[in-house]
Amino acid sequence: MEAARSMPTVQSGARVGYGRRIAVKPQRGCEMWSKCMRLVKIRMSIQEFHQLPRHAAYKYEYLDGEAWLSPRPKTYHALLDLHPPEESADAGRVMTRQISADDWDDLAGLFSAAFRDRPPFLGLDDKKRRAAAHAILENARTGGDGPLIEQAAFIARLKHHDGPAGGIVVTLLPASDLSDWRSFHWAEPPPPDAIAHKLGRPHLTWIFVHPFAAGRGVATALLHAATRELLALGYAELASTFLLGNESSMIWHWRNGFRLAASPFSRRKSD
């Protein structure tokens, strides 16, 4: 989901630098995020460093008078049992339709705006952020995150909001244990008719909302639209992944009925 806790605001006069990408072995499900995230360096005193708010997607170190924020993205996974959604109070003002081939360029701009000041795009200028957004969505569109479930890919528009207000992209992953590192990759390429034969498990790969449209039920309306199509296809559950430190996304998942899956780091398995 789009809404994430922003990185701490830097005081006026502080010198900020963005270093090279750090070679970090990412968890399954966040490889594309790791390619965008950059090392951030901020000149400050040790006292200011100890007062700096922390974001869970970064490791914080103090070296030679600078705060070093190194990307360390971690993800949690969740599952939703699919049921016909109830009519939402926002249904009249949020309009959804399936994504067409002509929508992807507009969605890249929307995606870039949604993550403008937060991971994974923190530290990227407008041009690089737009290019990264295009690459991420193109990867999903062309099967890099598993086959795209076109019937469940939607764009949303909101009354009195210019341009698209939100988007949802659902792909197909193996129906395996989410606590297994291998659960996010097909061991063998899935057959072209995998969706028609209800193979695998749908995965909520991306859902994002324009900052000016946040808090108006856009993401939930998109989820409801995708849910109806997934039920029509014969699927009974939907997996999702969110970045640790993205509190608003976590709350949105719980409010919409997702349950937390076991972490790959945990020895305990989900019930």
In the residues, how many domains can be counted?
2
The number of helical segments is: 6
Low-confidence stretches: 1-30
Radius of gyration: 19 Å
Write down the CATH class of the largest domain.
Alpha Beta
The largest pleated sheet is described as: 7 strands, mixed
Q: Could you give a short description of this structure?
A:
The protein is α+β, with helices and mostly antiparallel strands. Helices cover 24% and strands 23% of the residues.
Give a verbal description of the structure.
With 271 residues, the chain is α+β, with helices and mostly antiparallel strands. It has 2 domains: 16-71, no CATH class; 75-260, Aminopeptidase, CATH 3.40.630.30. It is 24% helix and 23% strand. The protein contains 6 helices and 11 strands. It has helices spanning 31-36, 46-51, 104-114, 126-141, 218-233, 247-255; strands at 16-18, 40-43, 58-63, 66-71, 75-81, 94-98, 154-158, 166-173, 201-209, 237-243, 259-260. The strands form 2 sheets. The chain has a 7-stranded mixed sheet. A 4-stranded antiparallel sheet has the order 1-2-4-3, with no helix packed on it. Strand 7 (154-158) and strand 8 (166-173) form a beta hairpin. Helix 3 packs across helix 4 (126-141). The longest helix has 16 residues, at 126-141. The radius of gyration is 19 Å and the shape is globular. The protein starts with 15 loop residues before the first strand and ends in an 11-residue tail after the last strand. The relative contact order is 0.21. The model is unreliable at 1-30 (pLDDT under 50).
